[in-house]
Design a protein that fits this description.
This protein is an alpha/beta fold. The chain is built from 14 helices and 14 strands. Helix 5 crosses helix 6, helix 8 runs parallel beside helix 12 and helix 11 runs antiparallel to helix 12. The N and C termini lie far apart (about 70 Å).
């Protein structure tokens, strides 16, 4: 009688832990590897109930029985790669490659590797080269490789795509994913999945970029913002930046000059330049209400998941904080994990960067601060 396949999730990210917990609760044998400590923990129902989130597990990680990375990976039948990535720009590929090598260097033959980060166009060929060079084993011969890009936004919420260089379906993997996602799993060749995911990302975020650019014009004309708000009032900075990592990876995978590159570059530029529009709106608000910078404080309410795979939101948060400090000395980090509206003799401008943060501010606005919704028209609630 064959022993059940052993599943390993490399990366104690929110996405990785949620996936591992779902597998565990469905009855699969799962271990998760913390890429920072390079230790693996075998999960069970008691652990996932006690620690419902990745952050909860990390607080007590040292109390749980752990195994060395090499031992965990060496016993894996299926290895899912879903680490936290915190580098930005040109350093991101080096960071991902380094973690990927850590994940695969101890694998045995007949292991299936499932890569869940976006690669752009042609990026999986680089991953396969890394695998074969690091392990000395060939994909399609002794190892199997799959590409399954995961995004925490709405892009892949209803349709999971799985790319492989071998046309034969893995029935166990298909059942496993169906048990988790409860919808049909679409197998295709890797190039098709790369292009499909790129198309989904661009369809979603080029649409957001178009909205942002149109709304910039709205601030310069006598436009009824109420009409625009009806469509876009719940599109916040949190949503706007959700796919920035994916867009940058796509950008790095493209070469030459063609309309696709211009579309990607324009979308990234529009999303990145939104911060300037938001800050200009706040400066204009100070002028309109005759507020002195020395008598004003800014509270940025953006509750971020510091354990999610992508780190771009945290970078944008820090950039917004830094740029606001160029104009106003007192800038603090808020969020719905703590009530930061303590009494102050200064006028408080609270920036709501997500729908949840806006709802929190409106319920707990003890100091009656001015709220700026970080949406396309930078709506002011005074």
């Amino acid at each position: 009688m064959h022993s059940p396949p052993k599943l390993v999730i490399f990366g104690l990210s929110t996405e990785g832990y949620n996936f591992a917990s779902s597998l565990t609760n469905t009855g699969y044998k799962v271990s998760i590897v913390d890429e920072s400590t390079k230790l693996g923990i075998q999960l069970n129902n008691d652990i996932t109930r006690t620690y419902p989130r990745a952050s909860d597990l990390m607080e007590d990680e040292s109390l749980l029985e752990a195994q060395p990375l090499e031992e965990v990976i060496n016993n894996a039948s299926y290895l899912f790669f879903s680490p936290k990535i915190r580098k930005i720009g040109q350093d991101v590929k080096v960071d991902i490659s380094s973690k990927f090598i850590d994940a695969i260097k101890s694998i045995n033959k007949d292991t299936s590797i499932i890569y869940t980060l976006p690669t752009g166009i042609g990026g999986n060929n680089e991953n396969i080269d890394i695998i074969e060079h690091t392990t000395g084993m060939m994909i399609g011969d002794l190892l199997t490789y799959y590409y399954m890009p995961v995004n925490s936004g709405p892009i892949l919420s209803s349709n999971t795509i799985l790319g492989s260089i071998t046309p034969k379906k893995d029935l166990f993997l298909e059942k496993l994913l169906y048990d988790i996602y409860n919808h049909q799993i679409n197998f295709a060749n890797i190039s098709s999945v790369e292009l499909t995911y790129v198309a989904r990302i661009l369809r979603h975020y080029s649409g957001i970029a178009s909205i942002l650019e149109v709304c910039k014009y709205a601030s310069g004309f006598e436009v009824d913002n109420h009409l625009i708000d009806n469509f876009y009032k719940d599109l916040y900075l949190d949503d706007i930046t959700n796919g920035l990592h994916d867009l940058r990876i796509i950008q790095q995978s493209l070469q030459g000059n063609n309309p696709l590159i211009y579309l990607v570059n324009g979308t990234i530029k529009s999303i990145e330049s939104y911060l300037k529009n938001l800050i200009d709106k706040i400066r204009s608000l100070l002028k309109k209400k005759e507020l002195k910078a020395s008598r004003t404080r800014i509270s940025i309410s953006w509750t971020l998941d510091v354990h999610e795979m992508r780190g771009d939101k945290m970078e944008v948060f820090s950039l917004l904080e830094s740029k606001l400090r160029d104009y106003i000395g007192e800038v603090e980090r808020g969020g719905n994990n703590s009530l930061d509206n303590y009494p102050s003799d200064k006028t408080t401008i609270s920036i709501a960067c997500s729908k949840n943060d806006y709802n929190f501010l409106t319920k707990n606005n003890l100091t009656e601060s001015i709220i700026v919704k970080a949406n396309p028209v930078c709506e002011v609630i005074a």
